[in-house]
Amino acid sequence: HLILSQAAFRKNPLSPATWTELQKNGAEGVRLRRLAVFTALDILATNPEAWTTWKARLLADLLKAIRSPSAQAYFLFEKELRKKKLKFSAADLDGYLIARLPAGKLVADLALVAKAKEDLPPELLKLRNGDLWIRVHRKEDQIGFFAEAVQGLYSLGLGVRHASVQTLPGLGIYDWFQVSARRTPAQLRALLKHGLTSSRDLPDVRFDSITLVSQDEAEWIFSFKGLDKPGCLAVAAKALASEGLSLSSARVHTWGRQIDDVFGVRPSGNPEQILARLRERIGNPHE
């Protein structure tokens, strides 16, 4: 009861850490709903003035968050990790990836990568809804690897709809790309056996806007906006790599014919000078 109250009124209901704490203390399923009702009744009985519509909404938001598809995917992923006895946590991976890929398949792939003594070839996964995902792996972290991978996908005629970028302790680079393709999965698997090689020159792309969205000691966020053209993501990634920047995250946003590629990078150098060079190279130098 006390743990649930603290989670609802003092913590972030959307945080996996909050979900995990409640689950470890048995606050899940039917028991969670009973605890929520008891919490409300306890406050009303002992201190009626303390029960407000604001607290009611916070408690309801917590229940809604824990019962959401994202939270359920998170719990299922943690369960599969325990089955495989892997020393990872859902907190180590991109939440979007956990929510989109089947937990069993994702954990099985992590187990495969954990045993690997060398770089593994790209792996293609087709979901029941038709979505295509490609995993790339590199034992050692390397600046520019993301740009190489994206350029390799472009060379295969693949469009990147989402990129999940992460470097895991003991595993190395473990990136997943949601792609669109005209080729069949069988054709793609045959091509991927040879790895992701860049056999196609990148197009001449200029972005309408390149901005430094935010910066702190841990991460800088760059945004590249413009018309949605083939190769945009690869061009932006290569430009960042040429500045010696190592990626920590990447998001691909599209609406209509417009794109907004957002990259998180580890700080290195002068951000304002880097921004100016990026605009000069592939953006609007007069922005």
Task: List the total number of helices.
Answer: 11
What does the overall shape look like?
A: globular
Number of strands: 9
Low-confidence stretches: none
Largest sheet: 5 strands, antiparallel
Instruction: Estimate the strand proportion.
Output: 15-25%
Q: What is the first-to-last residue Cα distance?
A: 55 Å
Average pLDDT, rounded to a whole number, is 88
In short:
The protein is an alpha+beta fold and 287 residues long. The chain is built from eleven helices and nine strands.
Secondary-structure blueprint:
Elements: H1 2-10, H2 16-24, H3 29-46, H4 53-66, H5 69-84, H6 95-100, H7 103-115, E1 123-126, E2 132-138, H8 145-155, E3 159-164, E4 167-168, E5 172-180, H9 185-192, E6 209-215, E7 220-227, H10 232-242, E8 247-255, E9 258-265, H11 271-282
Describe this structure in words.
The chain has 287 residues and is α+β, with helices and mostly antiparallel strands. The protein has two domains: 66 residues, no CATH class; 172 residues, Biosynthetic Threonine Deaminase, domain 3, CATH 3.40.1020. Helices cover 44% and strands 21% of the residues.
Q: Notable features of this structure?
A:
alpha+beta, five-stranded antiparallel β-sheet, 287 residues, 44% helix, 9 strands, Biosynthetic Threonine Deaminase, domain 3
